[in-house]
Amino acid sequence: MKKNSRGTSPHRTRHLMIYTFLLILVLLYFASRQQRLTMEGQQKVEDAKKQVSVLELKKTKEKPSPDSGDALVLEQEEMWSLILTNESHPVPENINIQLKKIDGTEESVDERVYGPLMKMLAEMRQQGMDPIVCSGYRTKEKQTELYQQQIQEFIDQGHPEKEAEELAKKEVSVPQSGEHRLGLAVDIYSGGHLALDVGFADTPEGIWLREHASDYGFILRYEQGKENQTGINYEPWHFRYVGVKAAQYMKEHGLCLEEFYLDQGLYG
Ligand SMILES: [Zn+2]
């Protein structure tokens, strides 16, 4: 009792202080909780917005606006000509290609490409040019031989083996990948320029092909400035068949095949 009567005031003060302190703690706790919930809420709203925009993108992709003038309708039966092959997309091992030999050469192409190729070459000859097909379909064995040769060439130039291999991949397709393996591509040079080098781009044949190959369904497959997408250095002599519609679309929009795949949503 003595204690009570003498200590009431300091005790009360102490209790008041403790209660006040606890109250502040509780208030602080709720304040921070509220803030966290608000932030989580905002994040959810942001996420929802993102999801909506992705869906909208997909929707636009699936149904191109009919008045955009950009819509390209690809039929299932023409997809054979649009097969993508590059280092990360090898040609299926069991692919069955019906070949047709190109007259006056040792080269062959997929028989479905033969007609358009002959028409294109005939038109060039008609105009006084001298196009020569120096490479068409390649077996995996032939590809391996060319690939090893290219690596050796870089090693002979003094590059370490690993580096030589990386450099070779930009010059020739790795075995079992690439257009020649499909029989859908040809290398063309000219009677006046018997070399597969960038100089071909400035020959009458090189200039004409760049401009008109798409009218026959061919694209300049390894274009300058597209090396990062195709993985292959500029090759003004290498033409790949993709069909007239797709070739003209790619030329008009400046797309390489990899970009066309993205543009048309063709990646599986
Ligand atoms: Zn080629």
TrEMBL record:
Pfam families in the record: VanY
Transmembrane region(s): 16-32
Keywords recorded for this protein, A-Z: Membrane, Transmembrane, Transmembrane helix
Domain (D-alanyl-D-alanine carboxypeptidase-like core) ranges: 108-243
Record-given protein name: M15 family metallopeptidase
